[in-house]
Amino acid sequence: MFSSPFVLTLSLLISLPILFLVAPRILPPPPPPQSFHISPSDEVDDIKLFNRAISLSSPHSHFHLSSKNPSLKIAFLFLTNSDLHFSSLWDQFFSNTPSNLFNIYIHADPSVNLTRPLSPLFINKFISSKRTFRSSPTLISATRRLLATALLDDPSNAYFALLSQHCIPLHSFSYTYKSLFLSPTFDSQDPESSSSTRFGLRLKYKSFVEILSHAPKLWKRYTSRGRYAMMPEIPFEAFRVGSQFFTLTRRHALVVVKDRTLWQKFKIPCYRDDECYPEEHYFPTLLSMADPDGCTKYTLTRVNWTGTVNGHPYTYRPTEVSPELILRLRKSNHSESYLFARKFTPDCLEPLMRIAKSVIFRD
């Protein structure tokens, strides 16, 4: 058929465009980087931890209330792959606070040489950790590890606030605690939040996790593992997006740790990391499917998404730190105030410390 070299060359040139069009539909996409995979040994370690946390947590009660001992705790979960740049600020946030009102847990990437805070507040707060990679399910695993450790460690942990090394508090601990446990009006979007109280505590608590059903490029994110990779467990109509940083109730922390079904889908590495941020989808999707009415659908961590670069939010610099900035970051359309904010460069610590007592912790 191809008797002459000219005809053969011409046939190959004509075939090339067709090959480029057909090949992606026939051939599987290239494998993701090996580092993005969850290793079998890490998976086994996590399941053992999760099962211990589940077995020792009550499946029936949300918070354990007592007229004699109404102290419920906030578990502060720090997820970091660098130094805790604002540990001095957090140290001041927790100062003069009774230890029976909070716990601290830190998941630090073990491949990074961190300088651990010298404050006694952070000593022995680092949990057993694994490597983490951006745009990969390792961030989900690390968060679940933090939740399971906090569940297992203290049954009084009632709220679980996920934070990063770039997060700062916007109020005093007292304001933060009262907002979550005592204020009947903090969740201004929920008319039932001001309902009955018992022992001075609200009876109805929700998780503060952002859950959005419409967002740019949502379909591309959904299909980033493959067009049908999430089916049938997660149809596109159930796929959600939201902030990675949340404040969960104990009941919802257990939902996350117990999950095996959705995790089997979200742990699949993406073939396009520029469209894949699993940590922004797993928690909103899971909790939206499990208990949509139990979530506020918004976060308490303020972030500025204007002027984003490579998927990172706007980053505040030292020259921008001021009392006006703190007051502006507090403003919320959903609750009485944001409680935390990100993202700040490490050299913001000095100007933040200068206004800590006079502005940040003065409610």
Describe this structure in words.
By secondary structure, this protein is of the alpha/beta class. It has a domain at 39-53 and 71-301: Spore Coat Polysaccharide Biosynthesis Protein SpsA, Chain A (Alpha-Beta Complex). It has 12 helices and 11 strands. It has a 4-stranded mixed β-sheet. Strands 4-11-10 form a 3-stranded mixed β-sheet. It has a two-stranded antiparallel sheet with strand order 5-6. The longest helix is centred in the N-terminal third of the chain and has 22 residues, at 5-26. The chain is globular and about 85 Å long. The termini are far apart.
Key structural traits:
363 residues; three-stranded mixed β-sheet; 11 strands; 33% helix; globular; membrane; Glycosyltransferase BC10; glycosyltransferase activity; Glyco_trans_14; glycoprotein
